[in-house]
TrEMBL record, chain A:
This is Thiol-disulfide oxidoreductase. The lineage of its organism: Bacteria, Bacillati, Bacillota, Bacilli, Bacillales. It comes from Lysinibacillus macroides. InterPro entries: AhpC/TSA, Thioredoxin-like_sf, Thioredoxin_domain, Thioredoxin_ResA/DsbE_sf. Transmembrane segments: none annotated. It is found in: Cell envelope. GO terms for molecular function: antioxidant activity; oxidoreductase activity. The keyword Transmembrane applies. It comes from the Bacteria. One of its GO terms (biological process) is cytochrome complex assembly.
Automatic annotation (TrEMBL), chain B:
One of its GO terms (biological process) is cytochrome complex assembly. Residues 65-427, 442-519 form the ResB-like domain. This is Cytochrome C biogenesis protein. InterPro entries: Cyt_c_bgen_Ccs1/CcsB/ResB, ResB-like_domain. Coiled coil: none annotated. The keyword Repeat does not apply. Keywords: Cytochrome c-type biogenesis, Membrane, Transmembrane, Transmembrane helix. Residues 534-557 are annotated as: Disordered. GO terms for cellular component: membrane. The lineage of its organism: Bacteria, Bacillati, Bacillota, Bacilli, Bacillales. The chain crosses the membrane at residues 58-81, 125-143, 218-240, 467-487. It holds the Pfam family ResB. It is found in: Membrane. It comes from the Bacteria.
């Protein structure tokens, strides 16, 4: 009887291990295909980039403030459309502890400056010349927006165009309490 | 489950076909057979011993060879369906357009193929479960059969019952011509000479050779499981990376998945053979044949504590020329030359000329990677860039739009100021198009002079820590195949009964021909009775052989 019991336990263990391995493989493949940005709830990868005025922006320097991090390019129409709304809300929230940072993907200073001037943007615009921040955040399609709370954690990821109401509610959500 | 008690008194587990101790056939089926099934040496296959709990039922399902073969066939069919059309991975279309791509290129069949998910078959959940079930089947079936077989081979007895001996394929029976001891000694001597391991027990003898070949299939299965395990490990973070990046000449880019590393493309080189096309080349209409694809790169690394985006203090790691089959290797990663695009605009040179006299007021060199706001030509003339669109795509609300950030179709809105026109004239210049003059007739124009091009290298970033595991798995697999194919397990049983009758039987799992050669040698040497192959189609002896077997069976029971 003892022997039979041992055999049952052994069989259960072997089958369970194999089932887990298969389960993990299927799960792993299913999630690998999706191009995901940084995970919600995880620490936002720190970075430093230089804006058009030559000022350095380090994400971790904004600890204690919410950060509205927007990735964009001049060729991307939805990016352009949401810019004025973003600027309005930036003005609204900058004194309430929500910082806006717009990260351009490796375009020339001329184009970015021209774009900023044309749209009269007042929030800091940094250029990711080597695409290293884009790589760190695994940004695929533009526009992409990452909301970071005052503790430096990612609370929400938005891909695609946002309306002004959305932007306002997103900024509100990462406002320091 | 009840035990089977053999006539010799040994208690065998349920499902045993041949008594573990003496070899007597225990089942009706085996008793009917002229030659017993020696595949597992008559041991009980474990799963057949009982069938109770759900775990045992699952276990028995996977233990079945029929199930295993069915799984192999289903997997083969599925895998071959995946080869009918190119898989999504090899299709040059964005995720959104893939469905349309299959329909456009392959018609209705392509549409159905895509809709059923067959275009990404190998990473589908069901295919992976299928392969996983095959792995379970291999493991369970091997354990169920390999362990009893191992036990049986390890605990073999020298003396077997007559009924076991007579049910072997090769049998011989007769009187010894010399003395019992002398005959046994001679057989032992000859068999040892032929590299058999000989054991004796009283008047019985067992000579055995190449037993390890019986483990071939199990070694083979171990290799297969290691192989599959290696493939599975690719999913674990840190084991496998396969990314690609485009880097233009002069650009420095962060390398995806290779944190902290940057690559600068210094030069892309494409060399071709400059021979006159001949032979096959002409037949296939190939004009030039490439000799070399090469990217000269510099690899940089950030200081340890640097953050993404901080490219101020990059440390140079090395210069390298990446060529086909000569990847740049660093930190477990390999960077391969995979693709290239030639001649992307890098710089455009214009001359500011008077429209009628063609008199030049100077040259403007616009670096498209860093255009300036204003170019001073001296003598009171200057050119301002009001708008630059790298990939002009028409106007929208009066503003020129760019389709991408790549300079495929650069367009400029210039403001030209000369002593003659101090107010400035505005001109919209698009490549290969006459300039537009939105604010009225101009006196001056920007005349295109020349362009500088640059190339782009497609680099693949790869890291695969599973290769040694997959390699070892493959090697073990092959070892198993070789052991099982080129060696065979040969056994010879010889017993001299008290009445001077000699009984001989032989078994080999494959390659009967070699066994017979050994038998011929020992039979001649020790003057043994001649043997008979019970499976040989021998018209004359068939009848009588059957008859005699039946007769003797009666004797035994």
């Amino acid at each position: 009887m003892e022997k039979k019991k041992k055999r049952l336990v052994l069989r259960t263990v072997i089958l369970a291990v194999l089932a887990l391995a298969i389960g993990y493989t299927v799960y792993g493949t299913a999630t690998k295909e999706k191009v995901e940005l940084v995970a919600v709830g995880s620490e936002a990868p720190d970075f430093t980039l230089i804006d058009l005025n030559g000022e350095k922006h380090k994400l971790s320097d904004y600890k204690g403030q919410g950060v509205f991090l927007n990735f964009w390019g001049t060729w991307c129409k939805p990016c352009e459309k949401e810019m004025p709304a973003m600027d309005n809300q930036y003005q609204e929230f900058k004194d309430q502890g929500v910082q806006t940072l717009a990260v351009n993907i490796a375009q020339t200073d001329f184009e970015v400056q021209n774009f900023v001037d044309r749209h009269n943007l007042s929030f800091p615009v940094v250029i990711d010349k080597t695409k290293s921040v884009m790589t760190a955040y695994n940004v695929g399609q533009l526009p992409a927006t990452v909301l970071i709370d005052p503790d430096g954690k990612v609370t929400k990821i938005i891909t695609g165009e946002m309306t002004e109401e959305h932007i306002a509610s997103f900024m509100e959500s990462v406002k320091p309490k | 489950m009840e035990k089977i008690i053999c006539a010799c008194g040994h208690s065998n587990p349920y499902g045993t076909k041949l008594c573990e101790k003496c070899g007597r056939p225990l089942t009706e089926e085996e008793k009917q057979n002229k030659v017993v099934d020696m595949r597992y040496d008559g041991m009980a296959i474990r799963s057949k011993t009982y069938n109770k709990s759900i775990i045992d039922k699952i276990w028995n399902f996977f233990s079945s060879v029929k199930v295993g073969i069915a799984l192999i066939i289903i997997t083969l069919i599925a895998a071959s369906i995946g080869t009918l059309l190119p898989q999504e991975f090899y299709v040059k279309a964005s995720d959104m357009e893939k469905g349309a791509y299959y329909e456009d290129v392959y018609g209705v069949f392509g549409k159905i193929y895509y809709a059923l998910g067959l275009s990404d078959l190998y990473s589908s959940w069901w295919f992976q479960i299928l392969v996983g079930m095959l792995a379970v089947s291999i493991i369970v079936a091997s354990l169920d059969r390999g362990i009893p077989l191992h036990k049986s081979l390890k605990n073999q007895r020298v003396k077997r019952h007559e009924s076991f001996m007579k049910r072997q394929r090769i049998v011989a029976e007769g009187q010894v011509t010399a003395g019992t001891e002398e005959t046994l000694d001679k057989v032992a001597q000859k068999m040892t000479e032929m590299k058999y391991a000989v054991r004796r027990d009283g008047s019985a003898l067992l000579a055995e050779k190449g037993r390890f070949s019986r483990y071939g299939p199990y070694i083979n299965h171990v290799g297969l499981i290691i192989f599959l395990g290696g493939v599975m490990l690719r999913l674990l973070p840190g084991f496998y990376v396969d990314e690609s990046i485009w880097v233009r000449e002069g650009e420095t880019r962060a390398i995806p998945s290779m944190d902290g590393y940057f690559i600068e493309n210094r030069d892309f080189i494409l060399e071709t053979h400059d021979n006159e096309p001949q032979g096959e080349q002409v037949k296939q209409g190939v004009n030039v044949v490439a000799k070399n694809f090469q990217t000269d790169v510099t690899l940089y690394k950030q200081p340890e504590d640097a953050l993404p985006g901080d490219t101020e203090n990059l440390e140079k790691v090395k210069d390298y020329s990446i060529r086909v089959n000569h990847p740049l290797k660093e930190d477990g990663f390999a960077l391969y030359q995979m693709d290239y695009r030639l001649n992307e605009l890098k710089q455009m040179n214009f001359e500011l000329v008077h429209k009628t006299t063609e008199e030049s007021l100077g040259k403007v060199e616009i670096d498209l990677t860093n255009p300036k706001k204003e170019y001073d030509l001296g003598n009171g003339s200057s050119v301002q860039i009001l708008v630059y669109t790298p990939d002009f795509d028409g106007f929208e609300n009066g503003e020129p739009r760019t389709k991408t950030s790549v300079p495929n179709n650069p367009a400029f809105l210039f403001k030209m100021t000369t002593p003659e026109t101090p107010e400035g004239e505005v001109s919209f210049v698009e490549i290969m198009q006459p300039p537009l003059e939105p604010l009225g007739e101009n006196q001056y124009r920007m005349k295109f002079a020349e362009a500088e091009m640059r190339d782009m290298s497609g680099i693949t970033v790869r890291k695969d820590k599973t290769i040694p595991i997959i390699f070892i798995g493959g090697a073990i697999f092959m070892l198993g195949v070789v052991i099982g194919s080129y060696w065979n397990h040969r056994r010879l049983w010889l017993q001299v009964e008290p009445d001077g009758r000699v009984l001989m039987a032989a078994h080999v799992n494959k390659n009967m021909f070699s066994m017979k050669k050994d038998l011929d040698a020992v039979t001649a040497f020790a003057a043994l009775p001649s043997y008979k192959d019970q499976l040989e189609k021998d018209e004359d002896s068939e009848e009588s052989a059957n008859g005699s077997i039946k007769e003797k069976e009666g004797d035994n029971t």
